[in-house]
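Researcher: Please translate sequence to structure tokens.
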Amino acid sequence: MVRGSRDAPPAQASQRDDRVLTATRVLALVLVPILLTAFVILYAFPGDTARLFAWTIRPELTPMVLASAYLGGAWFFVRVARERRWARIGAGLLAVALFAALLGIATVLHWDRFNHGHPAFWLWTALYLSAPFAVLAVWLANEQVAAPPRPDELRVTRVARALVAGGAALALVQGLVMFAAPSFVVPAWPWSLTPLTCRVVGAVFCLGSAGLVVLVDSRWVRVSLMVEVEVVMLTLMLVGGLRARGDLHADRPLTWLLLTGFVATLAASLRLWWVMARADRKTRAGLRGSGAR
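Model: Translation complete:
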């Protein structure tokens, strides 16, 4: 019995191999086609939401912003389905759970704004009333096999860590303010919003909270996929802004502040990805060289 108790810790440790569980992959495969369909509807046909979507969204820039989040989410979940390391996707799943929970709450708060006779409404409702629990459940299950950091893993620099955490905190605060106090935000926002669309856009901002993971774990593997998703989303939002530039209120200071922030964040994200990808290649080459010797 004594020997068995001594052997237990190594056996338990061997289970923490950082694998992605089957349940996590299955959830990802279920969500990808839903997200891609919503992206096509909202980004390609932003003026037809009354006919094609769960509720009528005006002006056209708002559905394109939501669509940008959906394509970023589709890319994320495609990677989840193929990923071998839990460390690469864990932070993103928590942000997705928050996003889905906020949209579920917004649906209940603005129930009368939705087109109850449209099949898209029932899909929307089923998704956002169940997804927060499903995503959180697979996150909790997968955390049980999360592996501790290895000393040879690439870390982001202290400056990059501060910038990523600061941007993530700003996005989270912005999103929560938009969700909690739409009447305060709507008069100053760069384009016209209703209380419902203000809360929806706020939920999109809250996806940026994934970057807060660097406060507890500075490994590049923890944020690399989040940076990729951010690049996809910001690029599509900026293109959407060009397509629907007539929706923007040029006389509002927040319009130019937000656009400048998006461009700066996109440039910084691309720079971080490029620098860290080079460093990662050098690290891998060095490890292969050490192994050869």
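Researcher: Any highlights?
Model: The two ends are 44 Å apart (CA to CA).
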